[in-house]
Amino acid sequence: MDISTSLQITPRGEEEVKRRTYKLNLKKRSLLLLLEKPQPIRYIVAKSLFPAAEVMEEIRALITGQFVAISMDGMRPAAATAPGASAPTADNRLQLESGFIISEAKFLLIDFCVDNFGTQSQGFVDEIGACSKEQALGFCLAKVFAAAQKQCPDRLPLLLDVVRTINDTA
Predict the structure, then answer these.
(1) d(Cα 39, Cα 4) in Å, to the nearest integer?
(2) How many domains, the chain?
């Protein structure tokens, strides 16, 4: 996971901070408290009292548990069933639905990358091709989304259509 990636607390994480609903351990709760506002992972690692390797593991667990999500440059991440994944919804959040067909999703995402990033797509193609779980594909999608925002923002509606198509397979 890239340390420049920003994380944001989800409604589920806010619930844990306010009411201890899910009874998370001290490490996870302390990381949630650092996310009062979206922060890059490097900030969280620097501010935490725990070793960096442990912090990274706890961050992964918080993402998997849907307590935090990858921040999409001002777009509010959903409390996703596939953490870090994204797709459009009515209130401008991004989320992949659980149960989508992974092989179809990989094909569609690779096709989008090749069409829009050209020769720079090889890294994405390799990473997407290696995905075997929804969560891993969600992380890849977040990276593709970030790259599309920087390199070809006019193509974002096409990416959102791809995600909508992937969700239709769920």
Answers:
(1) 9
(2) 2
